[in-house]
Amino acid sequence: MTAIAVTHLTKRFGHRTAVDDLNLAIREGELFALLGQNGAGKTTTIKMLCCLLPPTSGDALLLGDSITADPAAVKQKLNVSPQETAVAPNLSVRENLVLMARVYGCDRREAHFRAEEMLQAFGLKERAGDRARTLSGGMQRRLSIAMALISNPQIVFLDEPTLGLDVRARRDLWKVVRALKGKITIILTTHYLEEAEALADRIGIMHAGRLQALGTPAELKAQTGAATLEEAFLALTEEGVS
Amino acid sequence: MRMMAFAARNYKELVRDPLTPLFGVGFPLVLLLLISTLQKHVPNEVFPLEQFAPAMAVFSLSFLSLFAGMLIARDRSSSFLMRLFASPLAASDYIAGYTVPILPLGVAQSAVCFIVAFFLGLPVSGSVLAALAVLVPVGALFTGIGLLMGSLFSEKQVAPFSSILVNVAALLGGTWFPLDMLGGTLKSISYALPFAHAVDATRGALAGDLASAVPHLWWVLGYTVVAFAAAVWAFRARMRSGEA
Q1: Which of A93, B86, B166, B237 is the most buried (most CB within 10 A)?
Q2: Which residues contact B160 (CB under 8 A, 6 or more apart)?
Q3: Smallest Cβ distance to B80: which of A86, A131, A148?
Q4: Among candidates A187, A230, A238, which has minimal Cα distance to A50?
């Protein structure tokens, strides 16, 4: 079943077209990586799909609900882990989790129950009472993803979840993301191509606001005759390629 | 319920931030103690406690702009607001969620200011309650200005703008000296702004002269409405732009 159906999605800022007639279907339970250079249009696409930014034209259905006609219904189904850690620094780890559960409509008891589940699942139990600002970068990222999952979303957007992390923290976070595969639909944006190759079922490459290529890592390499995903990405996003 | 959860978070963020007690209570109290000590040694008409304590209460509330502005600006720069914008919280929940926890802080700041003033010799009377009531809209005024600054400016910009606001509010509010000393034009400017009215309303209420406080209060309320309307407009514009 289709989780996200994007049709002719377009966003213009004045004369500049940030996203140009995007058409895309993402399956339920799929881990879809959206790649592109800076300014390619991936963040604008994600913002439109999260109902943070209205499209200039076109639409997207998230599990049947339109981002233009019924953003409230869409928002109840999704959650997002932004590029920055986006945690409340003076709240404890547990308080951050409880806050997000309550913002999504849980009563106090349910929110605390879910927070305990997340603390356990994400290995944050020992730091539950510590202020979020005292956590390491890797732990803050883990908390950020736990905050995105506490509302039991059917679709989650992970915007560069491993940006700035050391190798071990990145690999730890990969394990977390892999454990989610198949259970919920995940849209991942990243600049690390090895991350996309290691985690994603399919990859979409955006260039100058358009979806330049779409397929599994193997399909993208075959399409360009490249030995690595990085070479395939460079070939597909070269200046002058359209 | 969603708004209250968000408001509770904002309250915790504020009270756990060391800036809050330092600037909201500590700094005005040090000034109150300092000026009162000076007054004892060099008595003059400018700084009787009955005039200076309410001015200090207003001065302490001017820091609410800093607290509100920094809170929003930090939430924007850390993308915490973007996370919330993607949630089912409604636009009205944000302004209410930021405002609700700040007002009790303002009342507490004002109360501490008067309690210390009692120890310094301010006569204990029921009119302090009237002064505290007058200070609620004054706190709302500074909160509204802070919400506007937090919506418009970055984290680095909020601090200097707040500093300018605090100084302008104190100088043109008649905190340090009577506004008659400023002369015609500056005095007219002072009374075209809300700060002198906030100080005069509080002084009037503390003196038990509510009739003199009410006209000044209307000025404060008018500016409060304008500040909140501008803050709501700026915040909604942020939300529509997709950029927290």
Answers
A1: A93
A2: none
A3: A86
A4: A187
Question: Of A174, A229, A227, A232, which Cα lies nearest the Cα of A199?
Answer: A174
Q: Report pLDDT digits (tens) over A120-150.
A: 988 899 999 999 999 998 889 889 999 999 9
pTM for the structure as a whole: 0.87
Higher pLDDT, A173 or B66: B66
Q: Which amino acid is at B163?
A: S
Cβ within 8 Å, pair B12-A75: no
Q: What is the rounded distance in angstroms from the CA atom of residue B49 to the CA atom of residue A80?
A: 54
Helix (H) or strand (E) holding A63: none
- Chain B residue numbers with beta carbons less than 8 Å from the beta carbon of A53 are 241-242
Shortest distance between the Cα of B4 and any Cα of chain A, in A, equals: 9
Out of A105-114, A199-208, B44-53, B222-231, least confident range: B44-53
Distance in angstroms (rounded) separating the CA atoms of residues B196 and B8:
33
Supply the pLDDT for residue A137. 87
- What does the block give as tokens for B36? 């009162």
pLDDT at residue B243 tops 70? no
Report how far residue A142's alpha carbon sits from residue A120's, in angstroms, rounded to the nearest whole number: 12
Domains of chain B: which residue ranges?
A: 2-241
Using CA atoms, how far apart are residues A62 and B20, in angstroms rounded to an integer?
43
For residue range B183-224, list pLDDT tens digits in order. Answer: 788 888 989 999 999 999 999 999 998 899 999 999 999 999
Q: Provide DSSP, chain B.
A: -HHHHHHHHHHHHHHTSTHHHIIIIIHHHHHHHHHHHHHHHS--SS--HHHHHHHHHHHHHHHHHHHHHHHHHHHHHTTHHHHHHTSS--HHHHHHHHHTTHHHHHHHHHHHHHHHHHHHTPPP-THHHHHHHHHHHHHHHHHHHHHHHHHHS-HHHHHHHHHHHHHHHHHTTTSSS-GGGG-HHHHHHHHHSHHHHHHHHHHHHHTT-HHHHHHHHHHHHHHHHHHHHHHHHHHHHHHHHT--
Predicted complex: ipTM over 0.90: no
**Å between B234 CA and nearest CA of chain A:** 16
For residue A209, pLDDT over 80 is answered with yes
